[in-house]
Amino acid sequence: MEHKDRASRFGVAYIQTLLAMQDRELVVVNTAEQSQDDLMGDFVAIITSFAARLYGRRHAKRKTQQVLAALQQNGNGRESEARKSS
Predict the structure, then answer these.
(1) Do 23 and 56 belong together in one domain?
(2) pTM tops 0.85
(3) What is the DSSP string of 24-75?
(4) pLDDT for 24-60, tens place per residue?
(5) Angle 12-17-23 (CA atoms, 0-180°, nearest 5)?
(6) Which end of the chain, N or C, is surrounded by fewer C-beta atoms within 10 Å?
(7) 80 and 47 belong to one structural domain
(8) Which is nearest to 31 in space by CA: 51, 5, 13, 58?
(9) What distance in Å separates the CA atoms of residue 79 and residue 71, rounded to the nearest whole number?
């Protein structure tokens, strides 16, 4: 497995003990020296995700406003053309 803390939610020591009784072992590939390295990485990922959502919503709101403005402008242009032709 890649990260030790992701093996289980209740503790890896229990799983390692059970595997040792069966002459097996749990191999952890990513042995972070400090748990804060993983914690900071997770924190940065969460902040990045929320920031992307926030900017995505802003973009969608701006795009909607642009579309509405274009529709209103086209609607006003058509009304004046209809008045001219009548």
Answers:
(1) no
(2) no
(3) --PPPSB--SSHHHHHHHHHHHHHHHHHHHHHHHHHHHHHHHHHHHHHHHHH
(4) 988 877 666 656 677 787 888 888 888 888 888 778 8
(5) 125
(6) C
(7) yes
(8) 5
(9) 12
Q: Structure tokens of 9? A: 């939610």
Please check whether residues 53 and 86 belong to one and the same domain: yes
Domain range enclosing 68: 35-86
Number of domains in the chain: 2
Q: How does pLDDT run across 6-25, given as a tens digit for each residue?
A: 556 567 788 888 899 999 98
Q: Do 53 and 78 fall within a single domain? A: yes
Dist. CA 64–CA 85, nearest whole Å: 32
